[in-house]
Amino acid sequence: MSQGTLFGNGQTRAILPVGLVKAFKLDIKLEPKDSAEHVKNFPLKKVPAFIGPHGFKVHEVIAVLYYLVKLHDENSPLLGKTFEEKTQVLQYLSFATSDFMTAVSTAIGGILGRVPFNKKAVQEAIHEVDQYTELLEKRLVNYTYLVGERLTVADLFFATCFFRPFTLWYGSQWRKEHKVLLRWFNTVTKSEYIEYFFKDLKLADTPITHPEHKKEKKKGGEKKQQQQSKKQKQKQAAPPAQPKKPKHPLEALGKSSIPIDELKRYYSNHETREESLPWFWNEFWDPKEWSLYKVAYKYNDELKMVFMSNNLIGGFFARLSASTKYLFGCMVVCGEDNHNGIVGAFLVRGQEYKPAFDVAPDWESYEFTKLDPTKPEDKEFVNDSWAWDKPLEIDGVKKEVADGKVFK
Fold it and tell me: What Pfam family is a match for this entry (predicted)?
């Protein structure tokens, strides 16, 4: 009897789960993302995702890895041998899926053209990846592997996370200067679990940190025709110059009477309740120029650890960087580990939220509700979201603020 179906074949996050199925010779069917069966069983289209023969379902890569390894061997050393090692394996898996991959995703989103290219955002993301890589390398100076002295899923999964960095911006010169990390990467990727994917991998020679714009090759036979066409065009009257389109949709609104940078400075340098909020309502707030929105994460039931939820906010803010001149706000994590949610309040240039937020590819994961500060409850929500000193409502329940971030 089949042991189930694994969805995500061909996706970067599923490299290791697919490799485990292959190496363990599990009787598990491999399916691509967004297949009819995948969408039917996992409406959020998460990968990797697994469904067992009796309807058991699980998604999120850490959970899927844990299940597949345990399915093969209840006491597999791949999950760590001692209690301490097992804890460290979870630590590195969590670090990889949250902090590390959030930064990597931001960088590759711009480089590969998945989101509008923002040079500053990409450079900051790569710098963040560099910092995390440096931490790993310090560990590997004295140890062969990340946990103990034997291979674990911590090494295997983290190695797959370096797929894009090594094929995009960690070029040959960088690799010469980071022999310790390269030694670990080469050792891990030659293991039976992920060699199938990495054996023919071509690493970057020269760093790629911006989108490649390919020019179409012009056929030689077209040259004469193009020259004639050019002469004809020169004889025609030049068309009137067209006005340049604004770089950002909200540029068309012009500058506000008080620059938003002034609000951001004031908020950063003064007590929130006592000074910043009164100044905002009395000196800055202009409903003709600005609007206020409640921004709430749609999938709180999927959130686990508080720090991971806060990292999710950080990734969202990084992808919003193109709208820095048109937004200010806070988002907070309310609740505790395994029982938390994300909510916040944003000041938005203009009256519509979409032009400011759709620069981030994951903006549709949030629900936007326009606020009316003439209503006491709406004004109070803005104050509490920006002050972090009172509980906020998450899915109908008031919860204390555990952490958060300021978009500025």
Answer: GST_N
